[in-house]
Structure formats: C-alpha cells, structure tokens
C-alpha cells in the first residue's frame, strides 16, 4: 500500500512538472475530438534506453518495431502515410525519460513508445499522455502499467507479470514440485508482482507450499546467507524473481554451492547473453514470448527471428523483439480505424480492436485493461546451455500453440 501511494504521488508530481513546463497545447484531452493526420510520415517517438542497464531489453523491441514499420510501409503505409520511428536515448535514467519524450513530441511524434519497464518507462509515458498522446511500452509486465495508475492513454504490449507467474507456478506444480522457496529482488515493480503472484498461485495448490523466502539485491556480492536458508528449507524448487546482472550472479553462487534443485524464473531471464555467468546451467525454466532458437511451436515466430538475423546481422538477444513488432501492428491498425492520432480517439480505437491477430498471438484491450493477461507463456528450459520450449500455458492452464 505504501509503495502504491508513493507511486501515485510520483505520477502527480511528474504531471505537474510537464504541465508547468509545457502548458496545454491544442489537442490535449477535452479539446477537439479529431486531429487530421499529418502530411507525410506519421512519426512514432521512441523514448527508450539505447544505453545503460535497460538497453538490452529495449534493443530487441526497437528492432522488432523497425521490421514492422518496413512491412507496413511496403504495403503503402497507414491510410497512405508511411510510418517513421524517431529515436531518443533515455540512457536508462528515469529523469531523462520525461525530457526525451517531450523533445520527441516537439519533433512531431504522434505516438510514443517507451522503455520495457514500469519504473523506467512511466515518466516518458506520463509526459506523452499528459499531452494527449498515446504511449505504449512493448514489454513492461508490471500491473501498474495500466489505467488505474497511468490513465486511459497508456498501454503495455507485455504480459502482465502476475498472469505469467501463475503460468510458471502451474508448470512447476505439474513437474511434481511441492515445496517452493522464493528469492525476490524488490528493486522494480515487475519482480515484486511476479513473486507475489507465484507465492499465491503455488501455495494454493493441493499439497504444495512456499516454505520460505528471502531478498536478494543487484548490489549483493555474496549470497551465502540466502543459499544456506534454501538448503535448510527442504525446497524442491527455487523461484527467482530478479533480473541481470544480479540474477546471474546469484545463480552462479547457488550452483557453485552444490545446490542443484530446479529454478524457475520469468521473462527478464530470457536470452543467452547472460549464460557466461553460469556455464552449463541446467534445470532452469522461465516464461518467454517465444523461442529465439528456431524451435518455437509457431512457424511465424521462427520466420520472424530468421528475418531479424538477416536484417540486423546478428540474432535477437531476447524474445522481447516480438513485442516491438506487435506494438506497431496494433498502433497501425488503430490509426487506420480512428483516422487520427489524437489521443482519446486513438485509445478508443485501440480498445475497440477486439482480439487482434499479432505476431504474439491474439491480443486485445478494453477501456479498463491496458496490459495483456490472456497471452500464452512459452516455458523455456535451459539444459547444459541448450534452450528448448517445453510447454505453453495460458491463465494457469496448459495450452497448445502453433
């Protein structure tokens, strides 16, 4: 409750700064219900991290967005207008998020794409929505990236962290695990959402229990105390609610200590870029948007990653790239429907698209829900450094895709 009050106060403070610094332009909420499309390209602002801690998470979605823009423009654009991505670098800095977004708006951005994290992406989203511009994060999973906190013009293409954690909890239970231990990095909203949802979902299952929990921090240099508690708990699975580089460091020390129980985790652990920290890692599972390795159960996902490699000369780092493509798909369809980029009208169009077929599968929003909960989680396994999709879950139930 304290965190939520603090976040709401922060939102109000940023809104006040934006309003004081920029005034109320024509086209903000309450003004004319329609704004004509611009002559020439429709510019989409990319207020994302191109450097710093969040850059690895934003790179893939940005490139996925570039592939989508190329595909849409090759078919004539949107209502005859080409799409154009205009970049700014937030440098993974919350304060710069507001500045970068406002600069992109001044350069005629009509829709805003922000960093794949609530804590780092929300300042840019608030800057955009306060100027009646729709803001999308491609992959933030925090439940706070939704209408109650950020208002009706902010959207996430990400899978809501609690829904994804329910899928992982069901997978763990289906594997026969009955005693879970939790490691929580409390530094961001998404990891807190994840651990809370896993705790609730797993603990509610017959004969299952969460036997303990502990906190780990990005700046920790030793995890000996936490590891000793896991060893004494009798846990048969460890749920890791963290992100890199801290998560990799914790895993390395866990395995070096001789504890080899299975570890489950979440989207922030997608990709193989961090595996050098834990050579020959096995018994590790996490949910992903899809497999990067040519073995996804959906042919179009495998084709996407082939195209990504061909276009950019290297493989995608994470499956987050899919979310960038899907974000542009939704934005383009909504502009086509609304025939405007004016915020309220565009949001109404997004909410009215229903379940739209995207590269991520069927994706939809309504006026009360601007983050996705019903999307399939592809459970990935790492065994001796090899990645394989082993199951798919939706809303805590095993499913089939492809």
UniProtKB/TrEMBL annotation:
Residue ranges occupied by any Leucine-binding protein domain in the UniProt entry: 41-385
Gene source species: Nocardioides marmoriginsengisoli
GO biological process: amino acid transport
Cleaved signal peptide residues: 1-19
Superkingdom in the source lineage: Bacteria
One Pfam entry name: Peripla_BP_6
Keywords linked to the UniProt accession: Amino-acid transport, Signal, Transport
Family named by the database record: Belongs to the leucine-binding protein family.
Keyword rRNA-binding attached: no
Protein name, UniProt field: ABC transporter substrate-binding protein
